[in-house]
What we know:
Oligomer: homodimer
Order of helices and strands of chain A: HHEHHEEHHH
Amino acid sequence: xxxxxxxxxxxxxxxxxSAVKRDLARVLPVDCPPGSAAVLTVxxxxxxxxxxxxxELLAIDMSVTSRHVAHVEGRGWIDRDPDPGDRRSRILRLTxxxxxxxxxxxxxxxxxxxxxxxxxxxxxxxLLNTLLARLHTDFGVCRGSTPRFKDLAEPPPLPA
Amino acid sequence: xxxxxxxxxxxxxxxxxSAVKRDLARVLPVDCPPGSAAVLTVxxxxxxxxxxxxxELLAIDMSVTSRHVAHVEGRGWIDRDPDPGDRRSRILRLTxxxxxxxxxxxxxxxxxxxxxxxxxxxxxxxLLNTLLARLHTDFGVCRGSTPRFKDLAEPPPLPA
DNA sequence: TATTGTTATACTCTATAACTATA
DNA sequence: TATAGTTATAGAGTATAACAATA
Lengths: 160, 160
């Protein structure tokens, strides 16, 4: 189990990713905070869906999702049509204006990434994407599974 | 430039990393939020230093760093000794209690990661760590360099 | 005058809990 | 009664700006 140190290092690296994300967030226009951008991105990639599924894909609580959605709807970037099959739900769908907004965001992100990561090859970027996708998947599976993180949150106090 | 799509995908993946980080943060004890853990981690890895350097390593504003530092000092996890060479500064140093606390955090992180990433080989973890370190470095360089992100923040409005 | 830190204020994101409407 | 979603409240993280002390 030489992986012990790798785990500790991964924890540090994940912490450091925050800085990169903050840098990237700075390219967003003021009326489109990261939470809004995330909503648009998911709706574009996965197509129309209900609140509950969006919250699941974003891996955030539905109450939070609800506010993000209200914001982007207020900007006219998505529609919330009643679900004919279940009147408690509404179907979220990207509007043409939302799609245009998203394309513009992607343009900004790409520009910033291309500037900072000019030394990366296409294969290297692909590899990082693959590993991050797997990381996300494995944590997602883990999130739903038996040993809840909560169980680890407060172990018995140390003898000290 | 087939990397265009890779950049867009990386932006999505980085966004998704937040979910993993939130999961991981849940294993922290309530008296040690992620910001405090980050301070302890950096001081352990790089040794004693001043506020300004800590803020630089964390890539967050010094005002924010100051609050995190005040918190961990309040818990007795670090010392803030006056800098004999410059009385405006203070030297931050991990205390034995802080080191113990950090070891315990690492234990929790490792346990959570080992549980979720049991399918990863040591080499795969190492590869992800290497790529993330490089990502962080390249963004760090970029952060200090000429074309400030601010310049990209508000381009001329679209014809719309 | 310039620099190191600290504090005050404000904004974004998140979770928990209480609540409404529908199944 | 259970579920989909909304809203109220609270907590953590961050940045900007104003301020203190020292160089």
